[in-house]
């Protein structure tokens, strides 16, 4: 609890409020601490203030700012930097918490999951008491205060309650996230607007609610009933707690607005409006977490000096490694500046840096290495070393059984990564594994070895070696292998995307113009020095042969080779990787060790004329700093978490009615006839799903034979943001046999609210036969969680049920299999309207700002000899589909 204060000699009410108000909660738990930040109260009052706080066991921080205007923002920032808790709440001396108030806030931290999401915050509504109301509150038993005065507020009892406000400055934040945003802008001096400016930044970073129209407009107050201007979403944070009966009381006191403190309000308002319309690009610099001490940092870049991460390292000292020629000089600097840890980017980037890295290890001085990871969009902070010299990858860190949820999580992740077009470096377009083999003239029966070359001067190739097994020796091994390739074996070599000069081979096939994911999908095994491609190989379930020292070397997943004949021995008797070990290791990297973000990069030329990819910024999605809980960071392109169906929007429904229409939940369960649709021809494909999703199925017929048309019908509200639908067209994906899986994409932009949407595929009537069992399989992903019905739909005679078979699925942002298994009976299509065809449907029943992709679709005939397989439980079938 951070409480700003400035007392004055001529007004004793400030100290009196401090004595009576903030400590009113008689149930305050011991893990709630109070820090009063005194912004320049006269020295003659310090002893009195200190005595009050000492008696209560509260902390006292006095700033020597007597010669400056009182700044609430300065107090909040100082309190946040000096505090030691995970969360902070700002509270003024004229606010009275009822009994149980802090316990309820602690419960809200749990209920709303604030420990896992950095940008989430709470806003506490105010109940402004009259002078009589304050007197009655103090006479009311503590256990009745909250409910009684909340009742007065709801009943409009103006004798006790002056007014209520749910848009307030009493907000609870992750402390380090508050620091990362730069806290309150201290350019606001005197009364007002510093809290509004800061919380507006928080709201835009959090994105919990749809963004109102005319965001930057300043008009009205927090009682607005139309969803426009920043005030509409601002107050929703306070509405959330007010609806739960959580509020704090504002004690009546006389207000004098003729002092110096209020003279700056007009200038502050002007400053606020300018920043409100200017976006988030000019946030104040991050503030240090002073409890973390001081950190010496080498190489200031987005990995070491990212604003979301800097508070974790306390006060940062940036120096060049050239300042420390000797170990003694280095140790002197550590002592003189009180350095607690060292932060490296690449500890092998120069000889001087490598010396400092070695000194840290010799001295036992804590350090971290911040660098890009081996998975797409990943980076890490390693306190144990760098790559192969780190113990962070030892088996005891990750080799443990995964529970069902963890295994499903990592299996989904690996499936998504195989579908993705992303890579650590720029790549050509994907064409698919099978198409790649045809392009390179490699038969399906050939054993294909994919060789991923690296940069000869890269840290991993120079320093991560096994004795004399250098990268130059690895090239010699490849030369020997090139001369000894047996029939039926193809060695495919791809240079590093940033390398210009590559060794020449006579018999190996060059694949420089191929996407690394296609090569991973097409090959049988991988050979590399110690490239991060070896980690990518795990995602594809491919065995990897290593020559250099690799941090990801795991017996049963990959192994070291010393000579060309070791590679040929592997070809003659190929090893298969242990899928269980792969899942455990990848789960550890992705969900426990690596941080995740969206990289903004640029290709640059170094002074040596070498090319490199510079990381300009990272939009952090998940942050993992050693010693701290994993935190999600919502980004501004994230979809709103709360949509128009939430009761929180009830106050806006009448004013917005002309735009929203009747939004009764559950209305329009299926689309009315005559809804406007878009159409496109179905693609012509060849056996798109041959071999998938499991051996107990066979593809009934090629795609084009049973799908004769596709359409999307939809209904959505356009009062909040726009609604758009992509035209339906095949999307070729580089995955699966013949690279022929296709997808249909149905998308809305952010902040649209869908009442329902129906995707239909017409199926030829003669596909299904009575008495036979079929399974319709698709893969879908969505950017928000939604419920989805899928199955068969038939235009039937009036009064008949149009749904032949339907299953409800829950889909979220991950790739999920959609499965419907059914047996056709005489009644299935008995009352179908003449001239109509059965349709496979996907019906979205309500979802906020949905972004849905149907990545694949096929019908499978479960044959009579597969009767036992037809009884496979949902878990087994889903695993088979996920594996496919």
From TrEMBL:
Domain spans labelled Glycosyltransferase 2-like prokaryotic type: 1-275
Gene3D superfamilies in the record: Spore Coat Polysaccharide Biosynthesis Protein SpsA, Chain A (3.90.550.10)
A Pfam family it matches: Glyco_tranf_2_2
Xref: InterPro entries: Capsule_polysaccharide_synth, GlycosylTrfase-like_prok, Nucleotide-diphossugar_trans
Superkingdom classification of source: Bacteria
Molecular functions (GO terms): transferase activity
UniProt KW keywords: Transferase
A biological process from GO: polysaccharide transport
Official protein name in the record: Putative glycosyltransferase involved in capsule biosynthesis
Organism from which the protein derives: Amaricoccus macauensis
């Amino acid at each position: 609890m951070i409480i700003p204060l400035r007392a004055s000699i001529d007004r004793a009410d400030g100290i009196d409020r401090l004595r009576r108000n903030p400590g009113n909660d008689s149930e305050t738990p011991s893990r709630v601490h109070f820090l009063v930040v005194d912004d320049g109260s006269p020295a003659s009052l310090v002893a009195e203030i200190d005595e009050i706080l000492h008696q209560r066991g509260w902390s006292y921080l006095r700033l020597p700012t007597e010669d400056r205007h009182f700044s609430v923002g300065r107090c909040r920032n100082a309190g946040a930097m000096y505090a030691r808790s995970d969360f902070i709440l700002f509270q003024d001396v004229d606010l009275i918490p009822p009994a149980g108030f802090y316990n309820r806030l602690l419960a809200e931290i749990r209920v709303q999951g604030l420990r896992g999401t950095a940008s989430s915050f709470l806003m506490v509504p105010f109940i402004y008491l009259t002078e009589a109301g304050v007197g009655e509150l103090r006479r009311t038993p503590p256990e009745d205060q909250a409910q009684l005065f909340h009742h007065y507020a709801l009943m409009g009892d103006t004798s006790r309650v002056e007014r209520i406000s749910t848009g307030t400055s009493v907000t609870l934040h992750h402390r380090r996230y508050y620091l990362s945003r730069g806290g309150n802008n201290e350019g606001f001096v005197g009364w007002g607007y510093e809290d509004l400016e800061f919380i507006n930044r928080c709201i835009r970073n959090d994105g919990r609610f749809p963004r109102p129209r005319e965001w930057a407009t300043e008009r009205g107050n927090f009682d607005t009933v139309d969803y426009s201007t920043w005030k509409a979403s601002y107050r929703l944070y306070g509405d959330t707690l007010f609806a739960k009966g959580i509020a704090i009381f504002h004690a009546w006191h006389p207000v004098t607005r003729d002092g110096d403190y209020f003279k700056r309000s007009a200038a502050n308002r002007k400053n606020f409006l300018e920043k409100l319309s200017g976006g988030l690009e000019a946030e104040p610099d991050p503030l240090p977490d002073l409890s973390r001490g001081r950190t010496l940092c080498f190489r200031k870049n987005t990995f070491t000096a990212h604003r979301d991460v800097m508070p974790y390292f306390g006060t940062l000292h940036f120096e060049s490694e050239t300042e420390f020629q000797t170990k003694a000089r280095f140790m002197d600097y550590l002592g003189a500046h009180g350095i607690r840890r060292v932060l490296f980017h690449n500890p092998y980037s120069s000889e001087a840096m490598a010396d400092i890295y070695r000194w840290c290890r010799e001295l036992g001085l804590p350090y971290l290495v911040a660098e890009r990871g081996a998975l797409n969009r990943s980076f890490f902070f390693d306190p144990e070393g760098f790559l192969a010299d780190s113990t962070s990858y030892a088996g005891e860190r990750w080799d443990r059984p995964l529970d069902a949820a963890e295994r499903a999580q990592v299996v989904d992740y690996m499936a998504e990564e195989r579908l993705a077009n992303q890579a650590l470096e720029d790549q050509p377009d994907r064409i698919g594994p099978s198409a790649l083999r045809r392009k390179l003239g490699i038969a399906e029966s050939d054993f294909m070895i994919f060789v991923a070359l690296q940069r000869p001067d890269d840290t991993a190739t120079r320093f991560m070696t096994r004795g004399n097994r250098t990268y130059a020796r690895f090239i010699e091994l490849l030369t020997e292998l090139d001369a000894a390739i047996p029939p039926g074996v193809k060695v495919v070599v791809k240079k590093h995307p940033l390398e210009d000069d590559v060794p020449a081979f006579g018999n190996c096939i060059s694949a420089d113009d191929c996407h690394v994911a296609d090569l991973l999908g097409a090959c049988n095994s991988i050979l590399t020095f110690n490239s991060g491609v070896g980690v990518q190989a795990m995602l594809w379930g491919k065995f990897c042969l290593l020559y250099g020292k690799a941090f990801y070397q795991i017996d049963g997943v990959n192994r070291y080779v010393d000579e060309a004949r070791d590679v040929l021995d592997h070809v003659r008797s190929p090893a298969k990787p242990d899928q269980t070990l792969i899942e455990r290791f990848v789960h550890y990297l992705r969900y426990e060790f690596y941080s995740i973000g969206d990289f903004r990069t640029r290709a640059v030329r170094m002074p040596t004329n070498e090319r490199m990819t510079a990381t300009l910024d990272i939009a952090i999605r998940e942050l993992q700093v050693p010693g701290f809980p994993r935190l999600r960071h919502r980004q501004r392109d994230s979809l709103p978490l709360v949509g128009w169906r939430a009761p929180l929007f009830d106050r806006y429904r009448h004013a917005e009615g002309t735009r929203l229409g009747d939004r009764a939940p559950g209305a329009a369960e299926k689309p009315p006839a005559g809804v406007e649709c878009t159409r496109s021809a179905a693609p012509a494909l060849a056996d798109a799903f041959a071999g998938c999703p499991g051996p107990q199925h066979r593809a009934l017929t090629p795609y084009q034979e049973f799908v004769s048309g596709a359409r999307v019908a939809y209904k959505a509200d356009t009062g909040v943001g726009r609604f758009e639908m992509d035209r339906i067209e095949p999307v070729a994906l580089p995955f699966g046999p013949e690279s022929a899986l296709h997808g249909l994409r149905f998308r809305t932009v952010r902040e649209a609210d869908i009442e329902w949407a129906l995707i239909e595929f017409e199926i030829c009537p003669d596909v299904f036969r009575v008495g036979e069992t079929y399974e319709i399989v698709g893969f879908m992903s969505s950017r928000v969680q939604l419920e989805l019905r899928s199955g068969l739909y038939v235009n039937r005679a009036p009064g008949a049920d149009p749904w032949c078979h339907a299953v409800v699925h829950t889909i979220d942002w991950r790739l999920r299999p959609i499965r419907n298994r059914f047996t056709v009976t005489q009644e299935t299509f008995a009352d179908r309207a003449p001239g109509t065809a059965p349709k496979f449907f996907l019906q979205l029943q309500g979802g906020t700002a949905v972004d849905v992709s149907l990545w694949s679709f096929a019908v499978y005939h479960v044959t009579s000899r597969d009767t036992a397989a037809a009884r496979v439980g949902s878990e087994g079938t889903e695993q088979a589909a996920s594996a496919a």
